[in-house]
Amino acid sequence: MGPETLPRTATRLGQALTPGVRLAAFVLFFSVLWQFGMGMADFAIGVWIFQRTGNATELGLYHMAAALPAVLFSTWAGYCADRWDRRWLMIIARLGIGVATAGMAGLALVGILDVWHLAAANFVIASCGALGATAWSATVPLLVSKEQLGRFYGLYTLGFMLPAMMAPMFAPVVLETIGLEGILALSFVGVGVATVSLMAVRFPQVAKAEASGQRPSLLHNLDEARRYLAARIELGWLAVWYGLWCYSSAGAVFLATPLVLGLHSAAELGKVFAAAGAGFLIGTAIIGVWGGGRRRVIAACVAASLQAGLLCGIALSTEIPFLVVGVGTFAVLHPIVDGLVVPIFQRKVAPEMQGRVAGFVATVLASARGLAFVTLGPLVDRVLEPLLAEGSPFAQEIGFGPRRGAAVAGLLIAGLLLVAVLVGLSVRPLRQVEMRVPDALG
To answer: Are 40 and 170 in contact (CB under 8 A)?
Structure first.
């Protein structure tokens, strides 16, 4: 390495830090601030629900309330993102999140907070989040060059994983100190700061899609995106694969709470989620530096197969050190899969269709997550736990005991991940999507 290396490096860095990238990084910075508070609130709410009910089904319904709006509204949000000012859509979304967070804090403060209140607020927050996230996803390709999309996605995910790693470390202590209402108040302040930051910037404008004579109904927008993907069957297969993987991944994350709290305390759960946050941090750093390479689908299948093996180990373990290491390593692979798949859509979809296709894909993913939440809770509570009750012949046969229904569900999810791997490697249009579909970005 000679003296001429530094000028060349500085030149490449200057070329990478375009005005669009700097604007995207500015938005990301202030988004991270409020995500820390929201991360603590989400952890605290999960503990609050499970400790008061001891029921994985109610916990699943709370999470289902967050997944349902993405199913109902993501495609409509994509329509809005293709026709209206995306910055104002994000501002409106964050204002809605702030109102819902303030409502939860107020109910907690007066002592009348109930699970259904939390579920309703989660529905509102997720509805606004679907609007804001779709608008942002459609904006990123206008700010970042196609060569840098993979790396920026890694940076973007890294920014959100920092608070995801730190929030569970602090949440148990903060929950004991200022209570759930205090954590929700901190979240409200963070949302306010992030909203004000958006008011200080301007996004580049994109040519608006021609408005049809129809209102932006959910079915109409779904059909527009469906027809676009049907004409590019490789991208359609990618959406299906992504949904199958998302069901498995969301199921694994959901099962972590009953799996740990069934045998350990909230503080131990905090350690496990902190390890998951650290794993996400490492994974996003890896995808940010690597960028994803050329054979993204094959790489995603390799990562999913590793997740399946890790999930088997997690399900069979009861000791916190093993759970911390297993969950942390599992989490490393999550942003890698996301960072491999998402840029394919961003590179291959035309700018004027980015919003609707992003909304369609978000609908697929949200449907998968919601299905995981609504099926795995009853599966654990009503099927697996009774089978593993003390004295059950089934429990004696396989060696599991009470409160281990979530562990058996984890083994089933690991098997589903392997099914996703087989689909990804055996379906040629999916495996060769990057070669068969031309780039839509210049």
So the answer is: yes
Tokens of 264: 């350990």
Token pair for 311: 């999930």
% of the chain residues with pLDDT over 70: 83
- Specify the length of the chain in residues: 442
Q: In terms of DSSP H, where are the helices of 111-200?
A: 115-143, 149-199
Q: 253-285: string of b/e by CB count within 10 Å (b at 16+)?
A: bbbbbbbbbbbbebebbbbbbbbbbbbbbbbbb
For the whole prediction, is pTM greater than 0.85? no
SS3 391: coil
pLDDT 10s digits, 1-31: 444 443 443 344 344 556 666 777 777 777 7
Cα gap 69→59, rounded to integer Å: 17
Distances (CA, A) of 123 to 69, 70, 161, 205: 6, 9, 22, 30
What distance in Å separates the CA atoms of residue 72 and residue 366, rounded to the nearest whole number? 9
Q: Is the distance from CB of 355 to CB of 78 less than 8 angstroms?
A: yes
> CA 135 to CA 124: how far, in whole Å?
17
Q: What is the rounded CA–CA span in Å between residue 343 and residue 227?
A: 20
